[in-house]
Design goal:
about 230 residues; alpha/beta; Rossmann fold; six-stranded mixed sheet; 7 helices; about 35% helix
Length: about 230
């Protein structure tokens, strides 16, 4: 039996301020740091020995991964950072307050942008220039993404880099973001398009999958945080 653990980063400053974040790089709050430490303590209680950690290129996920690894004496593990695990790109909504966006666009439209599988939020007029994406094909840098579009960049990484490790019997840890983890959950559990809107991934609460040798799910457990 092999384990895959998914952890959403601890609370970010944007989470606390109730604003859209996406690819904007924001830090953890004090509560977010505490949630990362709590996630480590929760993982300490189960039989889980990852051989690698996978995260995004955004600081809130990287810091969460580092805290978990530090607390569990896993700093020697390779940590792979990839833009493919970045949060979904919220386009022109990023930095805007979520409650104010409901007043501007209507609660139904905002709910579609936030929770549906195919709705795309308003796009940026041009892509950001950021050195962490400088080597990417310009077509890979989004102006805005639906969850379906984010899934199209997440899944190749999972299939090429993570699934083979699991098939070889090596536990793996993914520390990422709410939307990209929802995309993974949809794939792993074969959740229909019209059901994904009800799926939530809470900050700092590890989701543990136990697999058999053919990557069939034997058990799923969510380790609940008290922070």
């Amino acid at each position: 039996m092999v384990k895959l653990v998914l952890v959403r980063h601890g609370e970010s400053t944007a989470n606390a301020d109730n604003v859209y974040t996406g690819w904007s790089d924001v830090d953890l709050t004090k509560r977010g740091i505490a949630q990362a430490h709590e996630a480590a303590q929760l993982l300490r209680q189960i039989s889980f020995q990852p051989t690698a950690v996978h995260t995004s290129v955004l600081i809130r996920a990287i810091k969460t991964a580092n805290i978990i690894c530090d607390d569990l004496d896993w700093l020697y593990l390779p940590i792979y950072k990839t833009w493919r695990l970045n949060e979904r790109h919220y386009g022109a909504l990023r930095g805007h307050n979520k409650d104010e966006s409901r007043q501007e666009y209507g609660a139904h439209q905002v709910a579609l942008w936030r929770r549906s599988y195919t709705a795309v939020p308003p796009a940026l007029s041009k892509p950001d220039h950021d050195r962490r994406y400088a080597n990417l094909d310009s077509r890979s840098v989004p102006l805005a993404e639906s969850l379906a579009m984010a899934s199209q960049r997440v899944m190749p990484y999972f299939q090429d880099q993570i699934a083979p490790q699991l098939l070889d019997g090596h536990d793996q840890l993914i520390v990422a973001h709410g939307s990209t983890l929802r995309a993974l959950l949809k794939y792993l559990e074969a959740i229909p398009d019209d059901k994904i809107d009800g799926v939530e991934v809470d900050n700092g609460e590890p989701i543990v999958y136990d697999y058999d040798s053919h990557l069939r799910i034997l058990n799923k457990t969510i380790l609940t945080s008290s922070v």
